[in-house]
Amino acid sequence: MAVATSDSILARSLITDRRSTNFGLKNEVCRGKVVPCRAGGKVKGKGKGRVEVKAAVQIGGLEEVKKAKEEMGLDVVSEEELREKGFLGMRKTKLVCTIGPACCSPQDLEKLALGGMNVARLNMCHNTRDWHRDVIKKINQLNEEKGFCVSVMIDTEGSQIHVLDHGAPSSVKAEEGSTWLFTAQKLEGSPPFTIQANYEGFSEGIEVGDELVIDGGMASFQVIEKVGNDLRCKCTDSGLFLPRAKFSFWRNGKLVARNSELPTLSKKDWADIEFGVSEGVDFIALSFVNDADPVRQLKNYLYMRSSRSTRVLAKVESLESLQKLKEIVEASDGIMVARGDLGVEIPYEQIPTVQEEITHVCREMNKPVIVASQLLESMIEYPTPTRAEVISYSSRCYYWYLLIKETS
Ligand SMILES: Nc1ncnc2c1ncn2[C@@H]1O[C@H](COP(=O)(O)OP(=O)(O)O)[C@@H](O)[C@H]1O
Ligand SMILES: C=C(OP(=O)(O)O)C(=O)O
């Protein structure tokens, strides 16, 4: 993915190596000049990397963009078009960027817009509404003053069983053979070998012998004792607890579905939606949609609130949502394949097939598909993506791509 600078076009599928000077493009075909450029903001986390793009192909106006599309099969967009049409522009691939503390200044937002951001995503499970309001204001300003056309998406928190923020700066390590208490009790500080869950009923129906998997495989435990509502577990595969790490329980190789018992739209989600409507956001992405009902409910609500132009996207991130895929796609304006959470409920090796299946259903119903999570994950640390990451975007599926930790 190369990012547009002034008078340049975005050539999405061309990520260059630092040493490369010309993408291997024939000058007579594109008549473009490869220029170094920097775009994007500082990345959160280790803070070393930058979302930075190495080069852009400078090609003049719309005519040349058209030529690049037709003759070279590139999915490109001119800066002019980015400014005027945003996600309604001709480039079929769209870029959705999560806005977090690492990229929320007006300068960072402008760099992202210049780099091809079509939609700015605000994840409502982080930060305050005032913080989100401020970002929306900056995006509106960017659009009004600099002529961009960046849309805004809010993403609801939804309900999911996860580790409470354990207070440690980054992660807590569990060693194989160590014993841990998983509890929903509110505890002072972070007692050793104790993990707090966010949901009181997290252990209901769980039996001794069940497997508890953290973040789809980051670490595994076996339940060795039930102590009231708490679970004493032995670590069977060492690994890390990251803040908000997700739980899944397994019995005889099958998922014990727990998240599906929680509501898709909590009180907080409705309050966030109300906030989004009053701020005039363009998209609402609904987390943990298990069937079409919450999507229909939200669409009815938007209709009543005269916010018909706000689009509802359903996040497919659970087994249940896969079982009800067609009705969910039908009810929604688009789908997000939330690969991060999907990887907690289905084995990693099934994700490619599932992504393809979801895409197929969406294509048949003419609905856009957003692919989320770990797209350019290596760029959280490093300035260039891996070859494998580059290759995974060379298909002509024309997805919308959602960058999360890479930008936020
Ligand atoms: N608005 C925000 N405020 C603070 N941190 C944020 C914000 N948005 C994203 N982040 C950071 O980026 C990370 C990835 O974002 P995201 O995937 O949207 O959240 P999560 O993985 O927690 O569901 C978060 O864990 C958080 O550290
Ligand atoms: C986008 C995702 O969800 P979130 O960041 O809201 O956890 C995901 O799970 O891939």
UniProtKB/TrEMBL annotation:
Catalytic reactions of this protein: pyruvate + ATP = phosphoenolpyruvate + ADP + H(+)
Keyword Kinase attached: yes
Coiled-coil segments: none
InterPro entries, A to Z: Pyr_Knase, Pyrv/PenolPyrv_kinase-like_dom, Pyrv_kinase-like_dom_sf, Pyrv_Knase-like_insert_dom_sf, Pyrv_Knase_brl, Pyrv_Knase_insert_dom_sf
Protein name stated in the entry: Pyruvate kinase
Any one GO molecular function term: pyruvate kinase activity
Family: Belongs to the pyruvate kinase family.
Cofactors (names): K(+)
Protein's organism: Gossypium raimondii
